[in-house]
Design brief:
25% strand, six-stranded antiparallel β-sheet, three-stranded antiparallel β-sheet
Length: 263
């Protein structure tokens, strides 16, 4: 089972004119039986604000279990990117062994890609019955403490984010999802690393874990990503003039040696 740890943006932005998909199914408090071939149906509607949802680029759905923060919730499914178009419904495949049966502990996370960032919305909480997997007590306890509440909508596009690169970077960042695991049309990369002030032979630990490689045996599909947005470089350094006197040139035999090769 692929597990992605996604971080919610720690900022509540003002309501904007951006179209926001409102998830209507699963309904609050619904009980959905899960078998080996279950697909959870997710339905949403346009909130009525301009522009229409059809102008959004793509969306990714994830089944979440637990509380309302990154620390106490866990994506049960990885999700795949799907073009919006006029779609108002999609399905998520769920297997019984993916999690435990947590009463009112599940909800759907919907990440919609717009030009300039992500809009993240959530469904109401519901229960999956027939689950045979295991879920850590941390998530079970957090789900019970949340009651019927789910995370607040995260608008990563409004407040003139496009006109304020610093704000856009703070909202988008890398969305808390490893770059190689992102599936939207716009990918988000963290700020480029800054060289250290010292070079040490002892520090040989790689920055990131190694990635698995699969050799293509047939033609691959056309890449769907349209661009990568990298967080703005916030590192700065002060410089000053070197006022030390220059070292005098060589003299004696060295000077005569250098003069031989002057031409």
């Amino acid at each position: 089972m692929l597990v992605l740890h996604s971080a919610l943006v720690a900022a509540t932005l003002a309501v904007s004119a951006l179209a926001v998909p409102q998830i209507t199914v699963p309904a609050a408090g619904a009980s959905i039986p899960v078998t080996a071939a279950t697909q959870i149906e997710v339905t949403w509607k346009d909130d009525g604000k301009a522009p229409k949802i059809s102008t959004l680029q793509s969306f990714t759905l994830q089944l979440i279990v637990g509380g309302n923060t990154d620390a106490d919730s866990l994506p049960v499914t990885a999700g795949t990117s799907t073009a919006f178009g006029s779609a108002t419904t999609a399905k998520i495949a769920v297997a019984p062994g993916m999690a435990d049966e947590v009463k009112n502990g599940f909800y759907i996370k919907m990440m919609s890609v717009a030009e300039g960032g992500l809009v993240t919305t959530f469904s109401d909480r519901f229960t999956l019955t027939g689950m045979t997997g295991s879920t850590l007590d941390t998530y079970v306890t957090a789900a019970a403490a949340a009651g019927t509440k789910v995370p607040a909508m995260v608008d990563g596009v409004s407040n003139n984010a496009a006109a304020n690169p610093a704000a856009a970077d703070a909202v988008n960042g890398n969305s808390g999802i490893p770059f190689a695991s992102q599936t939207g049309l716009i990918r988000y990369a963290p700020m480029q690393s800054v060289p250290p002030t010292k070079i040490t032979k002892k520090d040989t630990k790689p920055l990131y874990p190694t990635s698995s490689v699969k050799i293509a045996v047939s033609f691959l599909p056309t890449p769907s990503a349209t661009k990568t947005q990298t967080a703005t470089q916030t590192f700065s350094a002060d410089s000053m003039e070197n006022t030390a006197s220059p070292v005098p040139g060589p003299d004696g035999d060295m000077q005569r040696f250098l003069m031989r090769w002057k031409d």
